[in-house]
Write a structure and sequence with these properties.
Chain lengths: 150, 150, 150, 150
């Protein structure tokens, strides 16, 4: 399992902005607020999605990799309240390559302060059979390069 | 223009539940609220959309009419604050048949009390040319029947 | 009515970016899309709200004017489809000062191209009596200055 | 720690409708869909929130318990695609009582079929000090009763 250990390394600290090279800014919306006067938790899931789509597009679509994938899990830790108006900066990082899936990690920052962290699992599948598939070699090379340098 | 006058009749009173035969109930969501503690105006547009899609599906898709249409206008009058939790009942009514478009009207009711009214215009178009098209005869008959009885 | 005519002038052309001095950029979200692959109409209402809140805050809160207001109407004309990802720039302009209300206008632009226009009416009211109130002199001066120069 | 073991028992199977006594139906919205033609993952977070708010209100507010709490974590497993229109039924269950927090579990069902499961952690706190607080005895008795019978 030394290969796996090497690939995963220690889990990166998602509360630190220095952990991330890929960033997606998202403008907070008035309608993201809830009756308590702060940004509602559901909106955070949309912020994470913005960064996840940008990360996966960068790894797959923008390099011409043709494969389907679905979202299997989203896990959000809420660390600080956030208030409208302004921008939340979402850092995204590939943190694990599985046999058929990838795990990505996110840090949400407001004016440099960490307000939430999140993880997400996407599974690759074959649209013809609707079954999950092992990550193809070409994509695995891209992912390993991202894991090492992204 | 007497034909048009006849088709349109007087504009129906959208603040009255008795105006509507077609109803779509929509559950209010905690995340629909805004920082003022009531349902945010943007959510009303989603409630109107629920009723509009149901109305148009009833007139078109469920009868096998194949035509594309786009949304050209939405106009919402906010009449009363609305609070979570609960259900908003949205009445929908075809109120005008144009040459290439239809106008629909909506009444939003909470526990029988009118909280908002809305109007909407949809334009029919040909996806091949991306140009608006006159309402085909088959559809016009369906619409005229709805206008008279719906 | 010459005073009124002077105040309102001709209705500004909301499809022209040159009409607007006040701008609010809003990032489009993946979740703003609908099943047709373009930005859903409901999201436009949130974009307009961003610009409306910014405009009203600039005129009221940021100048220490203490008055309550509610949203009475939103009216959106959808002119072009818009696609994720990217930013929509929303221009906002005060277009009419009534006795107890203001009318504001909006132009939504994507990469400089107008995709929608909107209008909105806000009514001022006294929270103690829950009744609408005439615009106080101090606020009226601010609004008239905005109407002339904003 | 046998007391704790007893309180938590085995983790209930959230994919089974029989696990739940508390249910919240939520109407799917047209605008919940994304560009892939199915319900977007962000909307699931709103469905879970509906059931979480209903559960916590049933345990706290409706019994006059005065305590503040915040949302610390939401974790959603997406198991099946879901399509508009229709209703999703969300089962909610208290699954763990901690010192200062509770863990709740959710099962989302569409026409009786499990489409997702979720967990959530809420932490109790004192609004005066903004610090987390141990669950008061009165509330702990309510929670233990819910854990045994809910």
């Amino acid at each position: 399992m030394s290969g796996d250990t090497k690939k995963e390394n220690a889990t990166p600290d998602l509360t630190q902005a220095a952990t991330f090279k890929r960033w997606t800014p998202v403008s907070l919306r008035f309608s993201d607020q809830d009756s308590l006067g702060h940004i509602n938790n559901v909106a955070y899931a949309a912020y994470v999605e913005q960064a996840r789509v940008a990360l996966i597009d960068a790894l797959l679509r923008n390099r011409g990799v043709e494969i389907d994938y679905l979202l299997a899990n989203v896990n959000i830790d809420y660390r600080r309240e956030m208030h409208y108006p302004g921008t939340v900066d979402v850092g995204a990082k590939l943190i694990k390559i599985g046999t058929k899936s990838i795990t990505t990690g996110y840090g949400l920052f407001r004016d440099g302060e960490n307000v939430a962290t999140a993880g997400s699992v996407n599974v690759f599948f074959d649209p013809k059979t609707s079954k999950s598939v092992a990550i193809p070699d070409e994509l695995r090379r891209i992912l390993e390069d991202e894991l090492a340098n992204g």
